[in-house]
Amino acid sequence: MSFFLKKTGFQEYLPLILIETFFSLAYLLYRFGPWMYPYRKDNVTLIFFMGCCFLFCLGYCIATKKYNRKCIDIDLTDPDKLIHVLVGIGLITFIPYCYVNTGSFYPKIWSSFNDLGLAYQTALNRLPLGTIFKINSLIVDIIKFPLVIILYICWNKINNPLKYAGFFLSLWFYATDLCIGRNRSVMFVSICFLIMYSAKVVRGAVKNIKEVSLRTTIITLVIILVGPLYFAATMNSRGSAAVEYANFLAQSGKNSSEDKFIKDIVKKKWGYVRPKVVRYKKNINEVDKLEFNIAIKPGKVSSEVVRHKKNIIKLDKFNEFDMVIKPGEVSSEIVERYEKYAPQSKKVHPFYANDLTYAFVNVGDPFFAKLPSRVQYLYAQVSNYLSHGFQGLTIGLRTNFNWTFGFGQALVLQNKFEKMTGIDIYSRSYISKVNAAGYPISYQWCTAFLQFASDFTFIGAVLFMGFLGFLFASLWIETIYKEDILATVLLVYLSFSLLLLTSWWQPSLSPADFLVFYGGIFTWLMKKSFWYNRELTVGISIQNGLKL
């Protein structure tokens, strides 16, 4: 392995190989994995995704070939000053952050681990305690991941008091996230350590020195392993809660459609109508019109109201809507397969059949049947997490384009833009149209490509993937050759976003991620522009024989 790491080409192209492999795995799980998605054999989706992967690879290769590894822009950022600021903010906010998320002034890890499913539901049901606490949580979400990254990569360059204060705060925030049963934050830290450790190992190979110690390796491996183990524990805990609730419903004689995990669905043979839509029915003059756009306020009826026949979405075809093209048809083969296998899947575990999208696990598959029961469940859940967004993408590829004014991938800014301009961005986006076509965005993912396409069209989304590849390569090279702190922080955020590209565009999900990622990109580009102009000045001065 050390032989390959010393090869310049392998050092620079290692992230590309890993990311492209991961993209391929996600699509293979969608097309050939355990979940029987109705549109998984759609060739339009395959061609589009192959185009995205190719442009990403092309952009990465262009950046790698054109990058000047010998330019003078050495990172002069003082890690002590950065950590001083982050630690100062963290010491003010760490206790309120824990109280907002857990209801306690300190992380109660042991009691939370007894029932992570309950901890997760409690965290979801916890109401915000006021503007001050919201601001506090926003600030912590902004600083906690950069704090971990800078501590990891600059541990030996930071003075001891700041180092240990930062370590305590990082451990506190991590323990708080472990207590609330949320997978995203814990998985982010695991991916964080994986990326940073890889960068350190490659940087050591570049300099021909040992960058990582045995202690660092052990700590890194432990943190990396916590991510998937925690994911398995939380999903098993949530699944156990689902089984207990299903048994309770069976004993009480209630219909399983009342299950709290699918409570927004009222089943009608092979279709469903949302209770929220039914509640709005009284605000609509004609019986056959139902409001299906959640962005419309109750009591309002607009031209975007969806018209149904018999108020139902049928399995054999999607209805035509005012704002979308008919997505396609589900064949009779799918119907027969659902009738045969879905009940079997449901008996094995409630989560093995998805009433929202008609997808189900083929429990009769020879490979799936040979797996141990616990591994089956984990395999099904991981496959679902990585692949089901392609189903939403497939429907989105068959809808019309309406420009979202650059806010399609900025979910956190859409409401602000609407308040200022009166333009409803959400209803123009592909996400809204896919939701109107019967694919429930509130419960399912649809890939980041739909967000990109809302701004750039699907052809533009393919080209945008080329830009992301170019950016990814530039950040990686600056990290391994120049030890740029800001580039390393952005590299970790972008890597996490790329690994979850088949779900959502991660920087758009919260104000904190949006500010760190896009603010960091802007700052990094400004710094690059400064050093580029300085390099030109130095070159001209040297050519003219002038002293600097």
Summary keywords:
Oligosaccharide repeat unit polymerase; transmembrane; 548 residues; mainly alpha; 6 strands; transmembrane helix; membrane; globular; two-stranded antiparallel sheet; 21 helices
Give the secondary structure arrangement, pairings included.
Layout: H1 2-5, H2 8-32, H3 43-66, H4 79-102, H5 109-114, H6 116-125, H7 131-153, H8 160-179, H9 183-207, H10 214-252, E1 266-268, E2 271-273, H11 275-280, E3 289-290, E4 306-307, H12 332-348, E5 353-354, E6 359-360, H13 366-370, H14 373-387, H15 389-396, H16 411-421, H17 425-428, H18 430-436, H19 449-482, H20 485-499, H21 511-543
Helix pairs in contact: 2-3, 2-14, 2-19, 3-19, 4-7, 4-8, 6-10, 7-8, 7-9, 7-20, 7-21, 9-10, 9-19, 9-20, 15-18, 19-20, 20-21
Transmembrane segments: 12-32, 44-62, 82-102, 135-155, 162-180, 186-202, 214-233, 456-477, 484-502
Organism: Legionella wadsworthii
Protein name: Oligosaccharide repeat unit polymerase
Structure characterization notes:
The strands form three sheets. The chain has a two-stranded antiparallel sheet. It is an all-alpha fold. The C terminus is likely disordered. The two termini are 44 Å apart. The chain is 65% helix and 3% strand. The chain has a domain of 320 residues.
